[in-house]
Amino acid sequence: MTERTGERADGRAAERVPLTVIAREWGRIGVLGFGGPPAHILLLRRLCVERRGWLAASEFEDGIAATNLLPGPASTQLAIFTAWRLRGTAGALVGGAAFILPGLALILLLSALFLTGNPPRWVLGAAAGAGGAVAAVAVQAATSLVPPSLRRSGPGPARTRWTAYLLLGAAAAVLTGPWLVLVLLATGAAEIAFRRREARPAASPAAPAVRADDETSRTGDSALGRPDEAGAGQAGADEDGAGEDRPGGRPRRALPLLVPGLAATGGLGALAWVAFKVGALSYGGGFVIIPLMQQDAVERYHWMTDGQFLNAVALGQITPGPVVQTVAVVGYAAAGVFGGLLAAAVAFAPSFLFVLFGAAHFDRLRAHRAVQDFLTGAGPAVIGAIAGSALPLALALGRPWQYAVLGLAALWLLVLRRGVVPCLLGAAGLGVLAAAAGLALP
């Protein structure tokens, strides 16, 4: 049973969701969250907004906008933030861990298969098939966010600006990569300026009362009750030297669970620094981490070959959970299971810290008119960025049969409006069939 405490501004009782429910529901998303951030956003929205009604649609959109302004894996931060909204620090820790751990366990198990020899052809086929459907998942995730964002923007010139912000976000996702965050900041700042200019001529003696009513309507749907205390941990990493080159840059064929002599190839400090960069210094979505990690893992420290790194990227695509899980494969290549766990812990720690330090102030910021205007502008840019990410994802497909999988996925998701998880599992199955038929794999 769900404990109820307080009352929402819309008249419904606010819910105090048990930690066991958070662990179960966020763990379910961690198990079924194939397809990376677009799938995670869609599953979280269906759970928190549509199915359970724990959050208002505007709250969820604000969470997307806020977490996309942070460095690191945005969908992971959104999972942590939505759990925080329900049960504060304890909810954030339980929900975040439940969201991350299933995919981490699976990707470490598969790393042993992928990095100790040539992976089976059917596994590569499954990865290629699932990867072919991800662009369609991105488009569906974006379209699901459009109606509440349009309602929030308002009619007239605001609707025109909404369209412009959407297009800017899409263009930024395609063209700017890590600099996407600057576009999100710019659209939010522009909306603040536009709304201040529009409000200036309308100023009158009656204006303060109108503004107060408007302020109440803007903030009413967030009254879920203040979660309990916010806490904080501390995470850090340092670099302890560059690795010593091995002939041809080829790693060992069989990787032990622990590598005592890791200092000769970069050391645990180097591994922690690579993971820290992935978790705290990368903007623009999960795929930004790929070139960032490749330079260190292949060229600098020689923990992996190019072929093994591509296998790692495929694992990050086909396994559930955030794309940042790929860093655990790099950690496994460097230092076995301990290295994979270390890399994952360092990469995800900043996401918890960002939310735990900042989320306690989010309600107060949401009640501020300028913040509301900022999120009204940044929201459509975020939606555009999610949709825009579909283009590079589609262009990255290397085989004609993958485009056929993409077309079927688009039909399933956008025309028939069926589920994301069956779509990705079916796409993976088609990839296995393609591999069995002898079709070329990426």
From TrEMBL:
Annotated GO MF terms: chromate transmembrane transporter activity
Compartment list: Cell membrane
Presence of keyword Repeat: no
Chain ranges passing through the membrane: 92-115, 122-142, 162-187, 254-276, 329-362, 374-394, 400-416, 423-441
Gene Ontology cellular component annotations, sorted alphabetically: plasma membrane
Keywords, alphabetical: Cell membrane, Membrane, Transmembrane, Transmembrane helix
Segments for region (Disordered): 203-250
InterPro entries per UniProt: Chr_Tranpt_l_chain, CHR_Transporter, Chromate_transpt
Superkingdom of this protein's organism: Bacteria
Pfam family, one: Chromate_transp
UniProt topology in membrane: Multi-pass membrane protein
PANTHER family: CHROMATE TRANSPORT PROTEIN-RELATED (PTHR43663), CHROMATE TRANSPORTER (PTHR43663:SF1)
Family: Belongs to the chromate ion transporter (CHR) (TC 2.A.51) family.
This protein's name: Putative chromate transporter
Organism: Kitasatospora setae (strain ATCC 33774 / DSM 43861 / JCM 3304 / KCC A-0304 / NBRC 14216 / KM-6054) (Streptomyces setae)
